[in-house]
Specification:
This protein is an alpha+beta fold. It contains four helices and six strands; from the N terminus they run H-H-E-E-H-E-E-E-E-H. Helices cover 38% and strands 32% of the residues.
C-alpha cells in the first residue's frame, strides 16, 4: 500500500497551486508558507537552503515583496509527474512577469521537486533553474515596459 493515494497527492498539489495563485495576486505569501511542515527544507539554488516553515515564510515574503518578485504574479504549471508511492511531485513551473502593457508574456521556468508529508503539507521543495535565464527575461520585460511607457 502506497503511503498516499493519488487523489490525496493531486488534491494537495491543486491546493499548492491555488494558494500560490492567490499569493501572487494579493502579495500575501503567509498562507503559502503554511503549506509546509514546521521542519520543512526548501532548497533554492540561488538563495540557498531554508530550514523550517518560519525560515521559508521569512524568505518568501521578503523575496516576493521586492522587485522583481513583486512584479511576478503568476506561476502556471506546464506539466507535473506524481509519484504517490514516494509522495513526490516533479513539475515545471513558469515564473511569469506581469503584463508590461501590450499583452506579451515574459516568463522563465524552474523545475520543482515537492515531497508530500500528508495532511496537505509539504516537507521539501527544491527549485532548479538557470539564474541567467531569469536575468535575461527580466531585462527583456523591463525594456519592453520602458519602451511602452515612453511611446
Amino acid at each position: 500500500m502506497a503511503p498516499f493515494t493519488r487523489e490525496e497527492l493531486e488534491a494537495a498539489f491543486e491546493e499548492y497551486q491555488r494558494v500560490g495563485e492567490e499569493a501572487g495576486r494579493t502579495g500575501d505569501w503567509n498562507p503559502w508558507a503554511e503549506l509546509f511542515t514546521e521542519d520543512a527544507l526548501y532548497v533554492e539554488h540561488l538563495f540557498g537552503e531554508m530550514r523550517g516553515r518560519e525560515a521559508i515564510r521569512d524568505w518568501i515574503t521578503r523575496v516576493m515583496g521586492e522587485f522583481p518578485g513583486n512584479a511576478m504574479p503568476e506561476f502556471p504549471v506546464e506539466w507535473a509527474m506524481l509519484d504517490p508511492e514516494r509522495g513526490w511531485i516533479a513539475c515545471k513551473i513558469w515564473n511569469r512577469m506581469e503584463d508590461p502593457g501590450d499583452g506579451t508574456v515574459h516568463q522563465a521556468a524552474n523545475l520543482t521537486l515537492l515531497k508530500y508529508a500528508g495532511d496537505g503539507r509539504w516537507s521539501y521543495e527544491e527549485d532548479a533553474y538557470n539564474p541567467q535565464a531569469f536575468v535575461d527575461m527580466i531585462g527583456r520585460w523591463q525594456a519592453r515596459r520602458d519602451e511602452l511607457a515612453s511611446s
